[in-house]
Amino acid sequence: MALTALDLTLQAAGPGGGATFTLGFWGIVALVTIAAAVAGAVAGWIFHLLTRREADIAGPRGGAGPAEAPPVPVVAGSSPAAGADPLENLFDRAAAAAPDGVLLVRGGLIARISSPGGLLGAQGRTLQGRAFLDVVHTTDLLAVAEALRGGAEGRRPLRRLEFMLAHGSDGPPRHVSARLLAMENGEGGDFVAVLSDVTSSMALANAAAAAARRLTSALERVPSAVLLTAFGELGESVALANRAAAELLAVPPAELAGMPLALLRSRIGARFTAGIALSLFPEPGVEDERRVEVDGEGPRRLVRTVRSLSESDPMRGRLFILRDATAGAAREEELARGVKEARRAWEALDERQEEILLANEGLEKRIADFARFNRELKLIDEMKSNFLANVSHELQTPLVAIKGYTEMILKGRLGPLTDEQEKGLNVALRNADRLIGLIDSLLSFVRTEKDSEPMKVEVFPLRVMVEEVVELLGERALEKNVRLKILFPSGDLAVRADRNRIAQVFINLVTNAIKYNRHNGVVEIEAAKGSRSSARVEVRDTGEGIPREDLDRIFERFYRAPSAGGEGSGLGLAIARDILRLHGCQIRADSEAGKGSKFSFTLPLEARGRLERAPRLAGTEKDEG
């Protein structure tokens, strides 16, 4: 029979009156099927979680019994070996099965503990020798104590306890299921408790129960009668029915839930006819839609639809929907189109899922390719660094020799020179110095990039180090008649960093400030205590400044601004930035055309922040603020 859609309208009351929305047949099928599947899966998973380790502990059992209440394994009263303790053997067997935790309790006190999964937390070892009830949270203490007392007095068999742990791992409270393995003729307070963490399963069960409640609430708002049946030992019975079904069938809701379908047919047959009862609720195997004429208080036409909850397992259960079609079925065609559209949507969704799977496979392949490319780039980068280091080292030695002999010739040690010879040698010496500086920059860049040398962090006075840098570069400053000024507070700043690398930062910045300064210019080095245990440092010059379009790139490796005239290696500022980054600091540049440049950065201070006033080096100019 061709599938015909049903018109199911939900009614919900709102602040402004009643609101309605339509739920198609397949929507109800999906709701009921999902709820049944979730509830069944969660229940099965919880049972498996609670029993999967017990079989390993107790060993094989003979006979058949209810799955939800397996018999408790009992150790015979006689010892398995001379002198052996059966409870100790039972504890060892349970611990070997690697459950979440095992406790051996004698006389109500914990004698041995096993918690390989950390269920009992860091304090688990401290529980040995304490009462078993110390493990139980105060919210469950009275119930567990009463259960243990009843089991010990023999009033009722005690097989399992459910409670919340008082001692557990960090985080939210943990819920456990304790399976009690007791001696057949032992003391009431002697037993082995096998603990299973059921926190996640309880959360899933609560979620399933909430979903079932939401489903029930949704079905209660459906004006059509909806019944869900399930097959069990008593045959097919009603598992779920909404209020509309109870009213239509004139059966109290409390009686309808759980009623065998055969009994329901009998009651409907007594009210109407046996044929109507069988038409409304046919035997298993029938899946169709049918119009049924019912003559109760007046002629009524019902549209009954029945579907199996699972195509692969027809005996899983069925869904019955009884819709009052007395007023007509004007929208059946529209709903049929909706069903077709839903099917097309499902098909499109399946196709989309296949596309997503293919896209994921492609993405994983690209990620693997990127990882391989990254490894290759790292190898190439390492080869580049090694090449620069080797070439720089090989060039440095002959250049130093050339510089030394050139200086010796200029000093007249190999004979007098003409003016032209002296001029040419001075040009050669300047270029040799420039090449040596370039090689030093390359070596510093390689060391910084490879990070081959570990940081040598120490506490040192910042002003003393800055004065050493000023003294080192003083001769270069005199050549351009540039004044070097140090502006420090009255108490020196104690910096905690790698002294040699920080000195390299100042050398690079002050060298650039001298090189690109004007004649009779000024270079100021100012430091003061900043915020958050850091020192604020500024290096300012009175040169021509840096164009705005170059400010964002001057810290790039090998970049030289066009206004620099092609001088330098383009590595000094990059090296300074990398060194400061190693210390967790940042550097920025500010410049205004014709008014010079300012480089600002921070340095980490030692906890006390300042040192005693340090002695000054002779030959440097300092202004103290």
Describe this structure as you would to a colleague.
The termini are far apart. Helix 1 (25-58) runs antiparallel to helix 4. It is built from 14 helices and 20 strands. It has helices at residues 25-58, 86-96, 141-153, 199-220, 243-249, 253-256, 261-271, 274-280, 332-410, 419-450, 462-479, 499-515, 548-551, 572-582, and strands spanning 9-14, 17-22, 101-106, 109-114, 160-164, 175-182, 191-197, 225-232, 235-241, 289-295, 299-308, 317-324, 457-461, 483-487, 492-498, 522-529, 534-541, 587-591, 597-611, 621-622. Mean pLDDT is 76; it is low at 1-23, 45-82 and 612-625. A hairpin with a 2-residue loop joins strand 8 (225-232) and strand 9 (235-241). By secondary structure, the chain is α+β, with helices and mostly antiparallel strands. Strands 13, 14, 15, 16, 17, 18, 19 and 20 form an eight-stranded mixed beta sheet that branches. It has a five-stranded antiparallel beta sheet with strand order 4-3-7-6-5, sandwiched between helices. Among the domains are: 9-23 and 222-330, Beta-Lactamase (2-Layer Sandwich), CATH 3.30.450; 337-428; 456-622, Histidine kinase-like ATPase, C-terminal domain (Heat Shock Protein 90), CATH 3.30.565. It is elongated. The longest helix has 79 residues, at 332-410.
